[in-house]
Structures are given as structure tokens and as C-alpha cells.
Amino acid sequence: MGRSEYSEKIQHIVSAMLRSGLVDEVLAFVQGLDEYDIVPAFIADERDAEKIVVTSYNPLSLAKLLAEYGDKDKKIAVVVRSCDARGIIELAKRNQINRDNIYMIGLECHGVAKPSDKRAKELYILGSEIEASGERTALDETLLAPNCRRCEYPLPTMADISCGIDREPMSITVNTEKGREIVSAAKLSADEGGEIESAATKERATRRQEEDFAEMRGMSAEDRLNYWLRQFDKCIKCYGCRNACPICYCKDCYLDADRILIKAGKLPPEKLFHLVRLIHVADSCLNCGQCEAACPMQIPISKLYHMLHKELSAIFHYEPGIDIAVLPPLGTISEEELKAGGVELA
Amino acid sequence: MNNEFEPKILGFLCNWCSYAGADLAGVSRLQYPPNIRVIRVMCSARVNPVFIFKALLGGVDGVLISGCHPGDCHYMKGNYYTRRRITAVKKLLDTVGIEPDRVRLEWVSASEGIRFADTVRDFTETIKKLGPNPLKGV
Amino acid sequence: MLSFIPTICPYCGAGCGILLAAKDGNAVGTMPWSRHQISEGRLCIKGWNAHQFIGHQDRLKKPLIKDNGSFREATWDEALNLVANKLKEIKGKDGPDAIAVLSSAKCTNEENYLIQKFARAVIGTNNVDHCARLCHASTVAGLLAAFGSGAMTNSIADLGQADCIFIIGSDTTSQHPLIARRVIMAKERGAKIIIADPKGIQLCNVADVYLQQNPGSDVALLNGMMKVIIDHGLEDKEFIQERTEGFQELLQTIHDYPLDKVERITGVPAADIEKAALIYAEAKSSAILFAMGITQHSTGTDNVMSIANLAMLTGNVGRAGSGINPLRGQNNVQGACDMGALPNVFPGYQAVTDAEKRAKIAEVWGVAELPSQVGLTVVEMINAASEGKVKAMYITGENPMVSDPDIGHVKQGLENLQFLVVQDIFLTETAKLADVVLPSACWAEKEGTFTNTERRVQRIRRAIDPPGESRPDWEIVCELARVVGAGQLFPFTSPSEIFDELRKVTPQYAGMNYERLNQPDGLQWPCPDESHPGTPILHTKQFTRGKGKFHAVAYREPAEEPDSQYPYILTTGRVMSQFHTGTMTRRSPALNNEFPEAFVEVNPEDASKLGIEDGDWVEVASRRGKIEIKALVSDKVKPGVLFIPFHFAECAANVLTNPALDPIAKIPELKVCAVAIQATKQSK
User: Fold this and answer.
1) Which residues of B touch A316 (CB under 8 A)?
2) Are residues C345 and C377 part of one domain?
């Protein structure tokens, strides 16, 4: 199934949800001023559903937009990839989004193209192939945004429904009670039960992570430190990384100039700026890549955060954005820890 | 050059256990290196990672955080959070290229004057071996 | 419900596309627009906070009339009638040239077009100018003479392809961050970066060579570099032969600039000058970026001509990754110039003294004739006001009380006017002196076009309604024209209609219209007809004037040099989070909090000599006036040099600056004057 058919199916689901009154608004990416322009929009009129496009392009975090701009008292559906879905769940854990009001329509996604790659909007990335103008060719991995290469979640099983591409007809899996409501409103047939990621997917993602992180891990501490100091010297304190990050939601942020922690008006900002954000976010970093996409100075932020996150994830056994009942690790203690006496965690 | 290096070490000691333990070491006339400067906090969980980063970025060579033994925290669970937090901080430092051993977490109770002195002696030695903080002057 | 409106950032000349989030009639935030050519999904701190001032309570919502020294609210009818009557009265008694108009580099092309049309067709004067006079007037003059076109030769996107980027007199990460990104991208591709700036800037972190020249010594530096290139035989002989003229005269002058002499004048070690020159000349494609450090001098035009000389010498014009790239400051200063808001040219840079062009434009406008004498420039207007020769001024979207040199003189001049009308979005320091204040709409509240520094004309889109009774500037000018009795010359009901007229008289815009502009890339002029795709790079086959002209330029000292009474050099500039006179940024908390107050940057050696510590209050004085300001001890300035950012009205750097003008461009020497500094009694 091609990109345009995929888009149509999603448009159909969205318009049905609006028509039936299941939701008041839908947040999705739509066509902008030209065919290469993909922008977010809140849609309330079912006739606008046809503007929604499904592309291999993810310019902004919909989770962030939802938390910052979504009406708190409306029922809103969001057309999400895994990164957006996991962002929504993490923000819901932090009481920034009311999960009860949100319906997530999940799209299977095997990665999007780099943010400034114009070709990206012409083609669709499916697993190991890409589709361009109706034709299929093998995927060239350099096309992928760096964080997407490392992603472990092509199938958004944490959304209410996950829509599988590359199958005729499009497969829909219901993951939650809300998912059933969606499917019923759209009068579609669906499979039940949470499909889990295959071991092959996990393995491939892990391999790519190891490849991406190998250079950094192989450096001596001194070289690593100098590398990051040099990168952070480029920082112009635009706050783009923080503004784009779904995990960063604080209205009153540690890094703000009037908080006196980070000295105002100093460029590049002191390195504390980056260490503070890192410790605040790393335990829950989703590897959505928006920080790196927002950085005007080409600093490889996503790689740093994801690398640290994988280490913390292994120690705390914490997978962000999957189970809304599992709270972020630095604010929780496990039963076993209550019995352990040492200074190290197991 | 290294034998002339006198590290500057910052210690965060929790009021109920570790600070008392340090006090006991003093009263008992136990000798330990004078490199440590102590800040008393009510609980080891009061230690915000930002304190540790600011200290290291400010040129401090080592940071010691000491609290009650697990199970004995005056505020019930504070030190459990501390343990998780310091684990995360050390991983962060390692990732960025700062030696994680510059930060140490210890449990020292109010009766453990000797343990306190031993900890400081041991940590000072560790820091001497690591050398001056590479972030000095950055 | 929230909508995201694609539009253009109102701050700097990079012209980044942004998505403005509007909800329930309020601008609530901005998001990056990934499709946009220039910003590519990124923004600087100003772009991320471009919405913050829009709903500020200080926004002017009603016309104001001054009665007995204080303002009272008035209706549009009363205000416009008062303005019309006063202007007619003064014109009748003292002639049209007793009135002067300041147009706005913040306003749209359509609005600039109407304002200069109003000055010329209704008032009958060429006394129309705007703040380009204070920033890139020397660029326009210098490049017009050298190339025949005063604009940036290349595009922002192709800068990333340069093998060498020479940045002189521009704090790029601070003032044009998304252009600095291209410098970083080039560097990470292996390009070499050369920086020349009297003050250390953040980009020095990635520079291969940093030259810290004395303020005002740029011609010597550039001549010195050219001599090195010629001595090494690295000039592009073929390019010089085929595409330029005047090389022999240049050669003669260059011989006078051996490295030891240049080192003495500039304070830059000879070895560094040589290194920089060789890197620039030996790279396959070298691009020059420059800004106020080159232009704001009494030798500004000379400085720009020297840059043109350097680029032509090495064949670095007309190709991707090369060229001369003046970084225009305001979001629409390029457009304001293109629209002829200048005393010597009509739209499209057509000389007012050219009878043929004048007649053609008069015909399109439907008037019998247009004024033929070159009018007054910004600083000249203030001088004329002070002498009583200019009796009325109509100022739109400009704040000379903070931006012009010698503010004491500006105040005296404006107060001497019989009538002053100011049209703006906030009650600025200039507006406070007005007899009538007209409230206008800001960038988010109107349709129109901005032209960025790379000649790209882009549409802005209305996201919310203007507050209270404020109106878009174009509507105000049309209404004023109607009240004056010239409504038939301003029959416009939309900016699109205005654009359709302006492109009839502006050859560079002739092929553009709102439909063609309704896509994210806009169009870069020249765009002579409707099938033309726009022009990313100028002078590819030949220069606009045919052959590029070398100008043999000799070094001249700044107009005011340090002496025993005023022993320090003051250079002025900007900071990252404030913009110009601070009208918008000081009302944006995220931006104002980064730099909430003024400071004078003092070298540690000087500080210790003067007994000044970081944070102490000091007094800085010049022949024009004095200010009390906090000291910032910093090694970014050389001993003997002080730096003050000019954004802060309460500690205005321009109280001190020298209104000495470049003879051709009439741009004031904002970058060099002589001052004295001492600790005040408040210091410890």
C-alpha cells in the first residue's frame, strides 16, 4: 500500500471520529503552502480531514504541541508515530496531558528523513525499502534522521490503535479500550491484542545504537570531554533544544535567565546549562530527535541524550513512554531497593 | 607534580547521621586529610545534581555525598532517592567525559566516626590519583 | 482552537520563516517552520520569542494628541484631520521641503512604497529616508559604485558551500544566528574561517585566524591583505582582465600598504594578516560577510569599496560559496531601500534626478510631476530641524531618539519642530515628543511582504487582529491621503493591490505578484517578468554595471580620534537578545531577562588602571554628552577600546556618538568616537 492510500485511510478514520463526536479536535500534520510543506494543525471540521498527510517527515513533536497548546477540556485525537505517542504518555505521567481526553491513532514508522532533506517529502520509508512515485527501492540508511536509525519502536503499540503499513488492506490493531471506540466509530475491522515488537526489530535497533555510540564510547574520557566542550562552545542559547523537547514542560525553567542559576547574557552559556538539561531529561529521553532538529549550531544533542538514556534505562529497567503506570525512575523506588544496603544499585 | 596536588573536596553530609558521624570523628581526635570542606544538609536527598555540577564546573576536584544507611533515613526514604540520583549523576559524568569517581556516595551513621575518617582519607587518595579536575578554567 | 500561521520573523534580516501560534485572537507562541529555506526548522532566541511583545499592555490602541504637554486620546478623524491641516499649513507657508518623512525598515514593502509615494506625490518632497542610513547606506553606495547593484550578491543557502568565509565587522552568532549556522556548516565541511573584529565574538571559537583590528582601520587592513595577495601572485588575472576595470589605479594605491605599515595602523600582527590573506585567496570559493563594523564609519563607503576590491581581485564574485554578503539588520531594510524610501532614488534605485525615470513614475502614479532634487538624509534632517529649515516631520516605525548619533542634538532638533507626528506600535522615546501619535499594527496583524538580506521577497500573513483601534500602516497612509484630498492616488483596499502597483515602477520586482509569492521560498530579485524564477546569485556573467569597478581607496583616520581629554575609543554595537532600540525586545521577558541593562565593556588592564571592578558604576563622557553605566570587565576588547550596546534608552550609547558623516553615503560614524571613562562616586 502506498503513501497516498495510507493517508486516505487515516483521513477516513479522522473524519469518522470527528463526525461521530468521539473527539472535538484532531492534531495531525497537514499539507502546508506547497507539496514539501508539512505543518501541524488542529482540525475541528471533518471536511478538513482530507488535508492530513502521512509522510516520512516529522518536523515537530506533536506531544509537545498537544501539551502546550491543546485545549485541556477538549477530547483530542492525535495522529502519532511512536515518538509522539511515547511523548504523550510521558507527559501524561507528569500531569501535563490528561490521558483520558486523548485518542492516539498510531502510524507504523520506520524512520523519517533528516529535517532539512527536501526529497523526504516525496518518498515514504517502509522498513528496508522506500517508496517514491509508486516505485519501491532499497532503503539507503543515510537517508534516515540519525535518531530514527536507532529507534526501537516502529510499531506504536502504546497508541490506542496501531495502523500497519505495507499490508493490503492496512492492518489495524486495537491496543486499548479507546482503540475499540475508534474502530467502531470508523466502522473498520481490526485485530485485537497488543502486537509486540519483534525480536529482530529490537536487535537491529540495538545494533545501530551500538554503531552510533561506538565512537563516543571508544574515546578516552579526556577526548570525550574536549569533544563536548567544543560542541557546547557553539551554543547560542536559543533554547531550541528545550523548547522542542517533549519531556521539557516546566513553565518556570531552571535555565531561564531570571532564575539566576545560569548567568544571563553569557554566550556561550556556561556548561551547567547543558548538564542541567541532561540530568533532567536523560532518564526519560525518547530519542525523538527534535532537540537536534532544532539546534541552529549543528550540535549532536540527540546522540548524547540517547546514549546516556540507554545506560540509565538498563540500570533502572525503565522504558519511557510505554506504560503510563510506571513513573520516571528518579522519583520512584523499587521494592528490592528497600532491602538493599549498599551504595550501588544492583 | 602530583604529590604537590592538594585536591579541593566538597562534602555534603546529612544532618542526622553523617554530619554527626563527622562530629564524632572530630571529638575523638581522629586524623583525616584537611582537603574536605563540609556542607551540612538535612538529608542526603537534599543534594540536587546541580550542586554537584556547579561544584565540578567551579573547579572542585571531588564531591562526597554522605547519608544514613538505607533503612535508617530520618525522613524514611530519602537516601533511596539519593542512591538512584547519584547513580544517574555518575553515569552522566562518565558519558560527558568527566571521571565518575570524582563523585562518591557513602553511608555513614552517627556512631561511625572512624568510618567517616576512613572514607575521607580514602576519597582524598582517590582524587589525588585522578589528578586536578579537567574542568578547571573552562 | 489554535492555528499555526506561516510567516516571517520580524527581527533580523535573515528573514527566517516561522509558524506563529494564534489562539482566540492572541499570539501565544512560535514554532520553527521546517520547510523554510533559511531557518530549516530552527530559530534563534528572538525567533522563539517573537510573539511575546505583541499583546503587551503598552501597545498603542488609540490615536493620541498632545494638549498642554500631555497626551489625550482622540478619534482617528480628529487626529488625521489635525495632521492633514498642519502639513498643508506648513507646506503652504514654507514649501514642501520644510517637511521630512522617516519611513520604517520594520514596515512591509507595501507600506514603505506608500510612505515614499505620500512624501513625493502628496507632500512634494524627496525628504524621505529611513534607518538604512544608519546601517547599510555605505553598502548601497559602495556596491552601487563597484558593481552597479548595492545588494548581497549570494544567497544564505550557498554560503554553506564556501571553502573560506571571511567575517569582518559582524557578530554573526549574535545578530544573524541562522546565517552563522551556515558558517558552522561550512566549517564542519572543512572550510576555513577568518574573523576580523575589534571585539572578540563567539564565532572566534571556530575561527582559523582572528584579527583584532583597531576600530576604523579596515581600509588599511584590506589594502594590506590585497598587497599580500598580489605579492604572492594569487590574484585572479583572468577575472580581472575580463570582468573588471580600474585595476591599475588600485595597484598603485596597494603598493603603499606594506605589512609593517598596516600592522602599525591596525594593531594586527603582520604574520596574521598574511595568513588570513593567503587563506582567503587560495581557497576555491571565498565568501565575505560583513555588517556594521564595516559600514558605520565616516569611511564606510571606502570600507565597502575595499571589500569589493578584495572580492574582485580574487575572482570571488558570481559563484556559489563566494561573493560579498552584507548582512542587513532589519527584517525589511532591504525592502525599504528597494521601495525607494531614500532621498536620492525612487523605487528600484531609479535616481530622482533622472528626468526620464521621473516622468515615467509620475505617469504611473497619475501626477503631473515629482520633486527632482535629492532630499535630506536622516542625520541631515535632524540638523535641518535643529536649524529651523525643516519644520515638520512624519516618522513611522523609527526611533531616532535612541538610534541616531548625538541624541542630545536629536532631541533638540525634534523639539524645535513645529509639528511632529509619529506612527508606531508602542510609545517610543521619539513618540513621546510627538504632537500626534498614530497607533499601528505589528507584523502579526497585517498582510504584506518583507525582503530579507538575500533579496528574497517573502509574504507575511495576518494571524490576529490589531489591538484596539490600531491599524496597519498602509491603511493609515491611505486614510491620511484621503483626508488630505489625494485619495485617488491611494485607492488601495489590500496590500496585494499595492504590490501590483509597486511592481510597475520597481523593475526588480516586476515579475512578482502575491500568487507567485504564496509559496515558502518567496522570490529573489531581480525578477523582471512573471516567468522568471528569481535570482539566487548576482553578477554571474557580468556585473549589473557591466564591468566591476576597482576603486583605489586610501586609509583615512576616523573623524574623531582619542586625545588627552578623551583618551579612549568608544565602539558601539549590539547584544544577542535585544534588538535595536529595544522597543520590542525590552517588552519580551525571555529576551529582556538575558540582557536587562546596559554595560560598558572595559579591558582588564584599563579597569585596573582606572580602579574599576566588574559591576561598578562608571561615567563615560564624550564631547556630545555623558552617561552613567555599569562596567563589565572583559578581555574581548583591547586596552584603549570600550564597547557599549546601544539598545538601552536609559544609558544610551548614542548620547556619546559622533554624527560625523561619510561624505557619499551620509552614514554616521557610530563605530568610533573619543570618550573618557571614570569611576563614579557610587563605586567602592
Assistant:
1) 84
2) yes
C58-105 pLDDT, tens digit per residue, is 999 999 999 999 999 999 999 999 999 999 999 999 999 999 999 999
Average pLDDT value for residue range C255-265:
97
Measured in angstroms, the CA of A323 and the nearest CA of chain C are apart by: 29
Residues C157 and C293 in one domain: yes
Chains within contact range of chain B (3+ C-beta pairs < 8 Å)? A
Partners of A283 on chain B (C-beta within 8 Å) are: 88
Note the pLDDT tens digit of each residue in B57-102.
Answer: 999 999 999 999 999 999 999 999 999 999 999 999 999 999 999 9
Q: Do C1 and A239 touch (CB under 8 A)?
A: no
Please give the helix or strand (H or E) that residue A232 lies within, else none. helix A221-232
Domain of C157 in residue numbering reads as 137-327
Cβ <8 Å between A344 and B87: yes
Q: How big is the A-B interface in CB pairs under 8 Å?
A: 97
Mean pLDDT of C549-567: 97
**Which residues does C677 contact at the CB level (< 8 Å), separation at least 6?**
C568, C600, C602, C606, C610, C612, C618, C619, C620, C621, C642
ipTM of the shown complex: 0.95
Task: For residue A275, give the amino acid letter.
Answer: L
Q: Is residue C73 packed enough to be buried (19+ CB in 10 Å), middle (13-18) or exposed (0-12)?
A: middle
Q: Which region among A187-191, C76-80, C452-456 has the lowest average model confidence (pLDDT)?
A: A187-191
Together in a domain, C359 and C495: yes
The answer to whether A215 faces chain B, any CB pair under 8 Å, is no
| Contact across the interface for B53 and A275, Cβ inside 8 Å | yes
A-C Cβ pairs (cutoff 8 Å, strict): 134
| Mode of pairing for the β-strands spanning C626-633 and C548-549 | unpaired
CA-to-CA distance for C472 and C462, rounded, in angstroms?
A: 10
Chain A: closest CA distance from residue C5 (Å) = 10
Alpha helix segments (H runs only) across C296-406: 300-313, 333-338, 355-365, 378-387, 400-403
Q: Let me know whether C617 and C666 are in one domain.
A: yes
Q: Please give the domain boundaries of chain B with CATH numbers for all domains.
A: 9-130 (3.40.50)
Is residue C225 domain-shared with residue C345, that is, in the same domain? no
Query: How many residues would you count in chain A?
Result: 346
Residue C607 placed within a domain: yes
Q: Which of A275, A278, A304 to mutate to test the interface with B (most CBs of B within 10 A)?
A: A275
CB of C221 closer than 8 Å to CB of C266: yes
Residue C93 is assigned to a structural domain of this protein: yes
The verdict on C457 and C468 lying in the same domain is yes
Average of pLDDT values for A78-84?
96
Assign residue C119 the CATH number of its domain: 3.40.50.740
In this prediction the pTM is 0.96
User: How far apart are the CA of A169 and the nearest CA of chain C, in angstroms?
Assistant: 32
Cβ atoms of residues C36 and A72 within 8 Å: no
C643: enclosing H helix or E strand? strand C641-645
CATH number of the domain to which C655 belongs:
2.40.40.20
Chain A residues in contact with B84 (beta carbon < 8 A): 316, 329-330, 333, 337, 345
Instruction: Say if residues C310 and C225 touch (Cβ distance below 8 Å).
Output: yes
DSSP calls for A70-125:
S-TTS-EEEEE-HHHHHHHHHHHHTTSS-GGGEEEEEE--S--B-TT-GGGGGEEE
In C, which residues are within 8 Å of A244 by CB distance?
32
What φ, ψ does residue B39 adopt, rounded to 5°? -120, 125
Residues C221 and C234 in one domain: yes
Task: Compute the radius of gyration of chain C from its Cα atoms.
Answer: 24
Q: Where are the domains of chain A?
A: 3-185, 199-333
Kindly list the residues from chain A whose CB atom is less than 8 angstroms away from the CB atom of residue C35: 32-34, 36-39, 59
Residues of A in contact with B77 (CB under 8 A): 333
pLDDT given at position A124: 81
Report whether B17 contacts B131 (CB < 8 A).
no
